[in-house]
Amino acid sequence: MGKGKALHGRFRAPSDRIFDACNMVFMLCLMVVTLYPFLNTLAVSLNEANDSIRGGIYLWPREFTWSNYEFVFKEATIFHATLISVLRTVAGTVTSVFCCAMVAYTISRPEYVLRKFVSIAFILTMYFNGGLIPNFLLVRELGMLGTFWVYIVPGLIGVFNVIVIRSFIEGLPEGILESARIDGAGEFATFVRIVLPLCVPVLATVSLFTAVSQWNSWFDVFLYNSSYEQWSTLQYELMKILQNSNTSVNAQDYASQFAGSENMAKAVTPTSIRATMTIVASVPIILVYPFLQKYFVKGMTLGGVKG
After folding, report:
1. What domains can you pick out in the chain, each with its CATH number?
2. From 69, 224, 260, 307, which residue has the greatest number of CB atoms within 10 Å?
3. What is the pTM of this model?
4. Is the dihedral of CA 11, 15, 17, 19 positive or negative?
């Protein structure tokens, strides 16, 4: 059997070999185009800031230094803000995915007579919203200003996530759900014990979307909790650092914040700070994504069949 496969591979048609070669070249080019911006940003973040101004940095730093990261992490609030970001990402993702899954299951049931009306009402919210001021007034009237819940409650239901999960649920065999009902399971028991385990691929996909959104969000912190330092997040603190760097006259204003005879070697610039912030904000998502990749591809493929 193995010898037959080897002979088949040895005598492949020239057109197949040309296709494989072109495909390999294309994938290599795609890999370079995809990885180069990140590697370039990493190199700039690890390069001495004043030297980075000259340009010419590609895949590795010309003058290696940790000064950019020292400048970012020297802020006293950065570690507490990181903890808040982790907490909001975990709590926001778990609650949002569960609520979206419940809504998706409800409007996927044929016996729910209002499912078409509710679906249209949800979709309309993707095109029209109340606006910034009404949202702020609503959050204030609900008493969520200056609280952790302002990161969780407004984002419990994401219409796009509901549609993706609903499409996946509609593709499940109806016989499985009918069997659960015959065995005496109610709707909630059917949802928790049958539907959720079968929806792991699409739930992992939606979880990745939600986690990235929660982790990268800073505007809601600025809008609702900018006066409450205990609820500040990592992204908001990094944004403030970048703003401070942009308002400084030159890099020597930053260098004066470091003591010692190596001040100039430790100077930072807005460009170097921006690159460092990008790496700091990206690393957690990069570490999580490989564990969800197989579910991500499967969930998007199956969840989009009936979309």
Report:
1. 2-75+248-303 (no CATH), 78-229 (1.10.3720.10)
2. 224
3. 0.75
4. negative
